[in-house]
């Protein structure tokens, strides 16, 4: 139940960030050409929305198996070694994203103490930087989920071509 709610929140956030960035950019361009004056904060907000979208999108990619991965070594290995390589790579993903989430949280705390604000929106920068610990923490959780599933079943999510959705790849 928790994972289904989290999945839905993740998907809604990604779509909302993308839609908002697109709408803001479109509106800013129309205003610039129609009224001769753009929206001064549009570019800054669009950048922040894309940062948040990318962080949550990376976690979504891990969850669905579409995150970028280099499997040349795994595919070239003997079957007895493939399982170990997959587990090691997932553990490295857990460690890396966990470290980024931890240091991202420390950075947010530091920036909060400085009182910095964004140039155009004048939002507290610590709020914007929350994308780092939230996105990386969610990505770490997704790696843990994928690792658990792989250890338990020997399968993991894999991206598929159109018409093959819902299938999972065995090792």
State the gist of this model.
This protein is mainly alpha-helical. About 75% of the residues lie in helices and about 5% in strands. A two-stranded antiparallel sheet has the order 1-2.
Spell out the key features of this protein.
2 strands, 6 helices, mainly alpha, 171 residues, two-stranded antiparallel ribbon, 73% helix, 4% strand
Distance between the termini: 27 Å
Order of the strands making up the biggest sheet: 1-2
Number of strands: 2
Count of alpha and pi helical runs = 6
Overall, the morphology is elongated
Question: What profile does the largest beta sheet have?
Answer: 2 strands, antiparallel
Give the DSSP E fraction (strand runs of 2 or more residues).
Answer: under 5%
Low-confidence stretches: 161-167
Oligomer state of the chains in this structure? single chain
Topology order in helix (H) and strand (E) letters: HHHHHHEE
- Helix amount: over 70%
- Supply the number of structural domains: 1
Average pLDDT: 90
Radius of gyration: 20 Å
Class based on secondary structure composition and strand pairing: mainly alpha
Subcellular location: Cell inner membrane
Membrane topology: Multi-pass membrane protein
Protein name: TRAP transporter small permease protein
Keywords: Cell inner membrane, Cell membrane, Membrane, Transmembrane, Transmembrane helix, Transport
């Amino acid at each position: 139940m928790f994972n289904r709610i989290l999945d839905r929140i993740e998907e809604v956030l990604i779509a909302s960030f993308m839609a908002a960035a697109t709408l803001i950019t479109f509106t800013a361009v129309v205003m610039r050409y129609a009224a001769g004056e753009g929206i001064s904060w549009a570019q800054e907000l669009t950048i922040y929305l894309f940062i948040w979208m990318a962080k949550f999108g990376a976690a979504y990619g891990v969850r669905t198996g579409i995150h970028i991965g280099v499997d040349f070594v795994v595919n070239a290995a003997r079957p007895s070694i493939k399982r170990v390589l997959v587990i090691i790579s997932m553990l490295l993903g857990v460690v890396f994203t966990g470290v980024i989430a931890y240091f991202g949280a420390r950075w947010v705390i530091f920036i909060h103490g400085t009182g910095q604000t964004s140039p155009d929106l004048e939002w507290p920068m610590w709020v914007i930087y929350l994308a780092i610990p939230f996105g990386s923490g969610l990505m770490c959780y997704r790696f843990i989920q994928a690792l658990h599933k792989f250890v338990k079943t020997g399968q993991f999510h894999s991206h598929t071509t159109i018409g093959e959705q819902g299938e999972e790849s065995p090792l």
